[in-house]
TrEMBL record:
Record-linked PANTHER family: DEAD-BOX ATP-DEPENDENT RNA HELICASE 50 (PTHR47960)
Keyword terms: ATP-binding, Helicase, Hydrolase, Nucleotide-binding
Protein name per the record: DEAD/DEAH box helicase
Residue ranges constituting the Helicase ATP-binding domain according to the UniProt record: 30-201
The UniProt record lists the keyword Hydrolase: yes
InterPro entries: DEAD/DEAH_box_helicase_dom, Helicase_ATP-bd, P-loop_NTPase
Claim: DNA repair is one of the keywords in the record: no
UniProt GO MF annotations: ATP binding; helicase activity; hydrolase activity; nucleic acid binding
Source organism (scientific name): Aquimarina amphilecti
């Protein structure tokens, strides 16, 4: 049972949220993501992909704050998705020390840079903002452990696709996990860049 092998703080939080057993998708995906491999996770809505993203991120960071640079980045389509995911993360990090930070287009880049400098563990961002932060040296990725992409279909558009390729070129070593409903041919192309030797989970 994947939940039984997660950090004790995560198990306690799941119990408080009355989440008792993993979905079939989570049974398959969590052990593979925990192994450290790059993973394409495919399946329809409401099978637990976003919850899996949150749980495996917390597991990777051992539920404790450390350092100043982000150790996890979560990429999303737009501001609305970023806010939604930020609120979900807060439900799971309420009683631990992990610092979750939200960035999107409505926030000035200089404000983002100054607040990020104060220290964070998990950064939720859109492709364009994340790319701007990296190009302006407003973000260090030297401590990055896991980079997840939620509902990755938006990357089939040329602008976010190009932004992501630019972002990943600046990251030396990191685990990538990409969640989508289907394996779009354009997403599969990432295998030749940052998704090397990726495993595939689908239900």
């Amino acid at each position: 049972m994947p939940f039984k092998k997660l950090h004790a703080d995560i198990q306690e939080k799941l119990t408080s949220l009355e989440i008792v057993s993993p979905t079939p998708f989570q049974n398959k995906a969590i052990p593979v993501i925990k192994s450290g491999a790059n993973v394409f996770c495919n399946g329809p809505k409401d099978i637990g992909k976003t919850t899996t993203l949150i749980l495996t991120t917390l597991q990777k960071l051992k539920c404790i704050a450390e350092g100043n640079a982000p150790r996890a980045i979560v990429l999303v389509k737009n501001k609305e998705k970023a806010v939604e995911l930020y609120d979900l993360f807060l439900k799971y990090t309420k009683h631990n020390s992990l610092r979750v930070y939200l960035s999107h287009e409505d926030l000035h880049i200089d404000l983002l840079k100054s607040e990020i400098f104060e220290g964070l563990d998990i950064l939720i961002s859109t492709p364009s903002v994340l790319n701007k932060l990296l190009l302006s040296n407003g973000l260090s990725v030297s401590q990055l452990k896991i980079f997840s992409i939620d509902d990755a279909e938006f990357l089939t558009g040329n602008t976010p696709y190009t932004a992501l390729l630019s972002i990943t070129r600046g990251i030396k070593k990191c685990q990538y996990v990409l969640y989508s409903e289907t394996m779009h041919p354009k997403l599969k192309r990432f295998e030749t860049s940052f998704m090397e030797y990726a495993k595939k989970i689908s239900v």
